[in-house]
Amino acid sequence: MKDTVYLILTFIVLTLWSCTDERDISPTVLYGTWEQSSYLKGRNLDLVGRYHFHQDGTFERIQFLRKPQSAEILGYTQYLKGEVAIEGRLIKFVDGVYYRLADGEKEFGDFEEFQELEDLRYNAEAVLDFEKNNSEVVMDFGPCNPILSTICIRHQRYIKVIE
């Protein structure tokens, strides 16, 4: 009887020890460009958010307006760049630097018109969940801050851009 118990315990320990989280990802899966867009009805435009993850551990996030069903970009609304670290399924955005239009009157413009927003850094964490054979990624930024809940989007889905 003792031998059977030891055999079962050994099997359980080996099974648990050999298992890894199959959902952990390699950073290489994330390298490249990912995009989400939403149609702005009254304006007949797409608002596009685009992440680019570089092999050197940096990222860029660009937000711009473009014509629907087109690659034509009308102008940029926001630019963010910084460092990124991946641990298992957790992505950490570290010390991201925001850039916005210098002129508060314009809604969009060219990069040459952007200025760094000093004293404002982007630090965030999200859990990554890849779907559709790694062609889509969902970033779950966790619970929203009650004060900022009206502008919080907890789950953000991005589609891999084939370049």
Report on the architecture of this protein.
This protein is mainly β. It contains two helices and eight strands. Strand 1 and strand 2 form a beta hairpin. The protein starts with a helix and ends with a strand. About 12% of the residues have low confidence.
Count every beta strand, where a strand is a DSSP E run of 2 or more residues. 8
- What summary fits the major beta sheet? 8 strands, antiparallel, barrel
CATH topology: Lipocalin
CATH class: Mainly Beta
What tags apply to this protein structure?
51% strand; mainly beta; 163 residues; 8 strands; eight-stranded antiparallel beta barrel; Lipocalin
What is the compact description of this entry?
The protein has 163 residues and is mostly beta strands. The protein has helices at residues 2-18, 27-30, and strands spanning 32-40, 45-53, 58-66, 73-87, 90-101, 114-131, 136-140, 155-160. The protein has a single domain, classed as Lipocalin, CATH 2.40.128.
